[in-house]
Amino acid sequence: MANNRPGLFQAIAAVGAGNVLVVKLDRLSRSLSFLIELIDKLRKDQAGSESLSMVSTPRPQAGN
User: Fold this and answer.
1) H or E element in which residue 42 lies
2) Domain interval for residue 41
3) What is the pLDDT along the chain (64 residues), one digit of tens a residue?
4) Considering the domain boundaries, does residue 5 fall inside one?
């Protein structure tokens, strides 16, 4: 991963096993390949990720 964003890379380096990196995807990733690489690194480090901008909430089905 290219290191032209020091704050982001400090946060990534601080995430360890059992931790979760909470981000807004639109601010995190400038390319899909970077995002895939980052998620792969977090999985290898046994860490997770959570997106603030993509919250999934259940919606009632139409017709009920």
Assistant:
1) helix 32-44
2) 18-51
3) 666 888 888 988 899 899 988 888 777 777 888 888 888 988 999 998 888 766 554 545 555 5
4) no
